[in-house]
Amino acid sequence: MAIPTETVYGLAADAENPTAVLKIFAAKGRPSFHPLIVHIASAEALPQWAASVPENARRLAERFWPGPLTMILPRSERVPGVVTGDLPTVGLRVPAHPLAQALLQDFGGGLAAPSANRFGRVSPTTAQHVREELGDRVDLILDGGPCQVGLESTIVDLSGDTPVLLRPGAITPEQLAEVLPNLALDANASGTHCSGRLESHYAPQASVQIVLQDELDERIAAAQGPVAVLSNREPTSSAAFHWLPMPDDPIRYAQLLYSRLRELDERQIPLALVVLPAEAGIGLAIADRVRKAAAPRPSTHAG
Ligand code: TXA
Ligand code: MG
Q1: Fewer CB within 10 Å of terminal CB in the chain, N or C?
Q2: Are 132 and 2 spatial neighbours (Cβ–Cβ below 8 Å)?
Q3: How many angstroms separate the CA atoms of 117 and 9, rounded?
Q4: Which pTM does this prediction carry?
């Protein structure tokens, strides 16, 4: 079943039912060693799913849950190995979306859920996107409207001595530092057990290039075929281009980004030039996702 969350739509199954969890990997075409996040109803359930709950995890939960933050903690016996690719840790999150909340509270257990897209592709931010991604591989889609955040959750690894930011998101490093003064940025950005950290990811069919606003005219003129421009300011170029306007406000930019990347493919535009907002706050997460969309594609998810 696909469910809305405030970040992106997830493809959910009972975390304690290994058969159901395996169906998630099959539907996504995702390698089974890639660990899933377990979604729970509230921070009160944390000790049931984590083998130990350090003080900084409690404080993060109090401050940011329900919300777009995932914590990596040692996993308890309640979490089957199939959920975590046999890692000794588990990702846990309390989503804020009212439908996800209602479902989790009714259900009482944990829902293992990755983003509801095929492996390597752009995460869905509407129910319609899920249908386009997964078609009849998903039996039921709960339509909770467009996702408010539009980018995947911030991930913090609390399982080691020093907390590490594994994936930037709407909860910014500045906000995290209020609770975690010793937060480290991920030193091993190419680690492959975290799918959000593979080089090419979140990618549309179109090739994506990051450019500065000042370079646009030149780059449009140099393009071989149809070209789209994602920017908050319309280029002045006299050559033809498709302008896909982006909001000035980085929070709204994040909300719209994945729909825009999908639009490229719907309109069969092979190349997109993307101007990023400032790399501060949520701008860090935007830059991270666009870089992954722009990264060289391995043949397995090229084209
Ligand atoms: O916003 C989100 O986080 C969305 C919604 C549905 O909650 N979910 C999501 O899941 O983005 P997914 O599976 O697409 O990305 C989760 C990331 C993956 O990169 C995975 O490798 C990493 O979290 N992850 C999960 N458990 C982990 C663990 N125990 N250790 C390290 N990384 C982990
Ligand atoms: Mg994903």
Answers
A1: C
A2: no
A3: 9
A4: 0.95
Whether residue 139 is contained in a domain is answered as yes
The closest alpha carbon to 194, from 166, 225, 159, 229, belongs to 166
CA-CA distance, 23 to 103, in Å (whole number)?
20
SS3 245: strand
141 and 283 co-located in one domain: no
Whether 58 and 148 map to the same domain: the answer is yes
Q: Name the E strands within 75-122.
A: 89-93, 111-112
Give tens-digit pLDDT for 183-211. 998 755 444 445 455 567 888 999 999 99
CATH number at residue 277: 3.40.50.11030
Test site for ligand 1: of 134, 152, 167, 257, most ligand atoms within 8 A of the Cβ: 152
Is residue 21 assigned to a domain?
yes
Helix (H, G, I), strand (E, B) or coil at 252: helix
Q: Are residues 222 and 183 in the same domain?
A: no
Q: State which residues have CB under 5 angstroms from ligand 2, the bound ion.
A: 115
State if residue 93 touches ligand 1 by the CB under 6 angstroms criterion.
yes
Residue 135 counted as domain residue: yes
Residues of the domain holding 261 = 207-294
Total domains in the fold of the chain: 2
- Three-class SS of residue 185? strand
Question: What tokens were used for 187?
Answer: 């030193």
Does the pLDDT value for residue 233 go beyond 60? yes
